[in-house]
């Protein structure tokens, strides 16, 4: 189990392992672990570091939602949309590869800093992508909203009522699709998210169509955050990580963030002067949402199962951890 790997390896050695928890949200998972370490060891990154982290995290959120969009629409028979989102995701992967040196398993976010600072032209590359993608996103929304088959197979399918969503521990876009305005970035702001003006999308339908619209709007809000972060990005400030991680006292901590799939958490028990955590427990949003399926498919048709499963957006790496 990856949690046991986290207990057997040093703090530094475990960071690249967290990339493997979800291959479409790698940056999100390594940040979640690093954030927990920083809170436990009382490490304060520079403002420039935090701004860069927000930019790459929101790029990762868009990339993750694009993979979901390709999978969801193709499961409903809209095969054209299998190709377009993957094409657009490549632009993000190109930027992150240039920044980190890796295509997917980045190992970029480090305690107190980053692996390296931004490359020359990073801001222009991101702005160019945002300008391009803004139009594409509207095109995709219009394309799908005019598809009678897509709407028919999404609307009133896999309905999750508000009270049931709360009782079953739903999280992320699934929870917000049932009318609950809950996002860790707003409920418990971390990093520099409190510096930005953005909205938390909410839909009340609780069905596959609502969950689809939530993720579309979230990509728009991610672009909004990135543009603000680029405009406010501090020019000065070290991104050098802390080289020696040794806790000065025993610490037990739970740290949570907003992953593309919902609330992600790391529970760490760390002993004084230890090189690794004594105990590591991971809260997976995909695992939390997995328990919804018996309720979502009940009373439906066999053909409803693919859109229901796809609308939840599972990542089995973080489920079978």
Q: Assess the beta-strand content as a share of residues.
A: 5-15%
- The secondary-structure class comes to mainly alpha
Helix content: 40-55%
Order of helices and strands: HHHHHEEHHHHHHEEEHHHH
- Taken from the alpha-carbon principal axes, the silhouette is globular
- The figure for the number of domains is 1
The CATH superfamily title: Cytochrome-c3 Hydrogenase, chain B
Low-confidence stretches at least 5 residues in length (pLDDT < 50)? none
What would you say the CATH architecture is?
A: Orthogonal Bundle
What is the overall number of helices? 15
CATH topology (fold) name: Cytochrome-c3 Hydrogenase, chain B
Computed Rg: 19 Å
Please characterize this protein's 3D structure:
By secondary structure, this protein is mainly α. It has a single domain (2-319), classed as Cytochrome-c3 Hydrogenase, chain B, CATH 1.10.645.10. The chain has 15 helices and five strands. The chain has helices at 2-8, 11-18, 26-41, 47-75, 80-100, 122-145, 148-154, 162-167, 173-176, 184-187, 208-232, 285-290, 293-296, 305-312, 316-319; strands at residues 109-110, 113-114, 251-259, 262-270, 279-283. The strands form two sheets. A three-stranded antiparallel beta sheet has the order 3-4-5. It is globular, with a radius of gyration of 19 Å.
